[in-house]
Amino acid sequence: MRPVPVTVRVPGPLRSLTGGAPEVEIDGGTVAEALTRLDGRYPGFAARLYETDGQLKPFVTLYRNDEDIRFADGLGTPLADGDELSIVPAVAGGV
Amino acid sequence: MTTAPARIVGLRCRACGRGAPLGPTHVCELCFGPLEVAYDYTEVAPLATRAAIEAGPTSMWRYRMLLPYEAEEAPVSLGEGLTPLVHAERLGEQLGLRRLYLKNDSQNPTNSFKDRVVSVAASWARQQGFQVLACASTGNLANAVAAYAARSGLRGLVVIPDDLEPGKVAPTAVFDPVMVRVRGTYDDVNRLCSELADRMPWGFCNINLRPFYSEGSKTLTFETCEQLGWRMPDEIVIPVASGCQFVKHAKALDELRQLELVEPGRPPRLTGAQARGCAPVATAFERGETHIVPVREPRTVARSIAIGNPSDGSDVVRLARASGGVVTAVEEEEILEGIELLARTEGIFTETAGGVTVAVLARLARQGRWSRDATVVAYITGHGLKTVGALEGRTRVPEPIPARLRAVLAADPGGLLEAGQPAARRAAG
Questions:
Q1: Predicted ipTM of the assembly
Q2: pTM score, whole prediction
Q3: Distance CA B320, CA B272 (A)
């Protein structure tokens, strides 16, 4: 997958890693690749998002535009030029 | 910010244990896990005696020493909690249970258990100077947030999916909150609110106020044990949406035992109830896993628990298993039958989520899960008038008759003419 520029939306708890920026531009052909490059530029993302076995942590949800990547190809989900990749903590509710 | 009392230590991540200062944040910076309020139980213990609790207010605030609010100003309250624990003799007879109890939380001010959590969140938010009390909601939370915002003078903001039941929209709108209807599922609404909470200085009950909000859930279990004479039941059946409530009942039991408020004994099995049309937690339980596979398009009448991406699902599976409980999902027809069974045996009208709870209870009872003398409690979390449309076509409405005695007698509705005679008079002939 050819790397393309995408916008990563960073949630409050992780903005200490981006110097407070809520959005950063990064290149990536897939979600996993974008996250690798994100961690390269702003060290610490990988440790926050992944378990030691390489799985995403259970409380992390990633969206490519409006779609939860678990309903696409997970970390292998391809990215298109201008996509928004959102990192969102899971939310409580219901009943 | 007001200084917290000594009994409140701060926030702590439930997943990794890392501490965080008390504040409007719900996510651990380190692992993204849920933050919870941590107490110093040596400070709580002298306050948490049976006598002090029993002498407290006739609301859930009798447990204020185990809630994260302390100020000269009284909490934002509409008299939530201390709802009836009903000994369900007739339902129990059908299910082979002599000690079946229903914690009827539909008797709260806005007719769902959400009043408990919102009362805590609103109190804390007002004390901290928030102007806006907000939520993402499947309906019941919106009802509660709108009411408690009105009560507290905060501005209410409720964000709901556009296809919510009318029975949940109108009772929310009457309190005049800002209402945002979003085209999408509850999970879409949640995600949107999560990003909003990040940017705006608003208090979202189930997002950045979650550590405070969720503590309110514990009072349901505190009261249940108090109402059982400070004894723990053998099993509790709890509806599961995000799982946030379920997890807090486990915490409540730990606290009751640690503070020696309850008689010693085996802690209850905690059993979760879901609708098959959106059962990510039950599915994980059945597969013997803790990993939750989200459900993209929930399809069930039990809208208030139709959460495809349950934040605390893994913990529910772990806690259910560790306690000896199960997580079970029931079909749509069973849910409606559950509503009817409860109404006809106990005179309690519950919403679809309550139908799920009763259906799981009934199914497990019929499978022989419990001995006749087991003490089983089911949490009935919302009122039937909220989802009355779910029963459309199932309730019999008779044709009208003229207002004449002869017409009634001729119609003999339901064969009542014979059955209507009190036993004593029948015997006298």
A1: 0.84
A2: 0.93
A3: 7
